[in-house]
Amino acid sequence: MAGNSFGRRFVVTTFGESHGPALGVVIDGVPPGLALDLDGIAADLARRRPGQGPLTTPRREEDAAELLSGVFEGRTLGTPIAFLFHNHDARSEPYAALQDVYRPSHADYTWEARFGVRDWRGGGRASARETVGRVAAGAVARQVLSGAGIEVVAWVDRVADVSACVDPQNVTRASVDAFAVRCPDSAAAPKMEAEILDARSAGDTVGGVIRCVARGVPPGLGSPVFDKLEADLAKAMLSLPAAKGFESGSGYAGTRLRGSAHNDAFIPGPDGRPRTSTNRSGGVQGGITNGMPVEFSVAFKPVATIFSEQDTVNRANEAVKLAPKGRHDPCVLPRAVALVEAMACLVIVDHWLDRLQTP
C-alpha cells in the first residue's frame, strides 16, 4: 500500500496500527557519524505521548523507543535506523460495536471505500497513534539540523476563539512547555485550558491553530517548480491527523494588503547576507528560503469523536444512532505541537541534505 513513506533524501516510513502489537519507523538517509542523543528523542516523544493530563486522552503508553538498527557505539552508521514502539494500553473492546458502523467525520467509510477493508480498532493507521514514529524520526532530523544551527519551535497559537500573542523571533521550547496547553502566552494559556476542559465536560471537542518558526535556516533551500519548500511543508502538515489548513508567512491575512505594503524589501544584513525588512513571505520566496526565519501555521479541526449521540449509517446503508466510546483527546493541539515540529524538521532536513548534494 502506497502512502506510508515521506521524503526524498531523508526517507521516513512508518508502520503499525493503533491497537496492533506495535508501531514503528524506519529512517533512511541519516548522515553517518552523528552522535545520536536517545534522551533527546525520548524528550520529543514525551511531548506527544498520551495520558499527559486532563487536556489529553487518558490512554497511557510509555512510547519508549526500542532502537533496532543503524547505530553503533552511539553513532549513526549511515544505514537505515529503525525504532519500535510496543502498545501496552490498547483496549479494543469499546470499538467492537463499530465494526459495521461509520463514525461521522472519521476515516472509517473512506478507508473502506479505498481498500475494501479496515481496522476498526481505534482507527487503525488512520489514528493519531501512527504519529509516534513521525516524532521519533523528526527528533533524529532535529539533531541533524542542530549541527547546522537550525532550530524549530512550534506553539499553540489559538484554541477555539482564544488567541495568543507570541513573538516568533524569541519564543523558546521551554516557554512553550511551561504550560500544559503548550502556549507560551501566560495570559492566553489558562483561557485555552479552560476552553478545552469546558468542551470535555460537555462531551465535546475544540480545534485551533498551531504556529511554527524555523530559525537559522540558510538561504537556498528548496527547489522549483513542484518541490518548493513551502509546498512540501504544506503536504507534510496536511498529512497530520485532523489538520485542515496551512498558511505560509502572512497567509490569508496578506490578501488584505496591497503589494506596496506586503513586499519584503531587502536591506543589508549583519552577517554579510541581505535580509528583509519584514517577513511576510515567511522566509520563503519562489519556493526557496531567503535566510529569514521560516514561519507558517497549521489549522486543526475539533476532534471528530464526541461523546454524545449522533446520526450515521451502517455498512448496509441503514440509518443508526451512534454513541461513541473509547478514549480520545478533547483537543489535539497540545500534543500536536510535537507533530508539527517533527514534520517541519523532516521537510527542512530533506531540503538541507538535497542542497548539500546538488551543485
**Highest-level CATH class:** Alpha Beta
CATH topology-level fold name? Chorismate synthase, AroC fold
> What is the alpha-carbon Rg in Å?
21 Å
The residue fraction in helices comes out at 25-40%
Number of helices: 8
CATH architecture: 4-Layer Sandwich
**Biggest sheet record:** 5 strands, antiparallel
Count of structural domains? 1
Strand order of the largest sheet: 1-2-3-7-4
Mean pLDDT: 93
User: How much strand content do the residues show?
Assistant: 15-25%
Distance between the termini: 34 Å
Fourth-level CATH superfamily: Chorismate synthase AroC
Structural class label = alpha+beta
Model description:
- This protein is of the alpha+beta class and 359 residues long.
- The chain has one domain (5-357): Chorismate synthase AroC (Chorismate synthase, AroC fold), CATH 3.60.150.
- It contains 8 helices and 18 strands.
- It has helices at 38-48, 108-115, 131-146, 173-177, 188-201, 229-238, 259-262, 333-357, and strands at residues 5-6, 11-16, 22-28, 66-69, 71-72, 75-76, 81-86, 151-159, 162-163, 208-215, 243-248, 266-268, 274-276, 284-285, 288-289, 294-300, 310-313, 319-322.
- The strands form 6 sheets. Strands 1-2-3-7-4 form a 5-stranded antiparallel beta sheet, with helices on one face. Strands 9-8-10-16-11 form a 5-stranded antiparallel beta sheet. Strands 5-6 form a two-stranded antiparallel sheet.
- Strand 1 and strand 2 form a beta hairpin.
- It is globular.
- The mean pLDDT is 93.
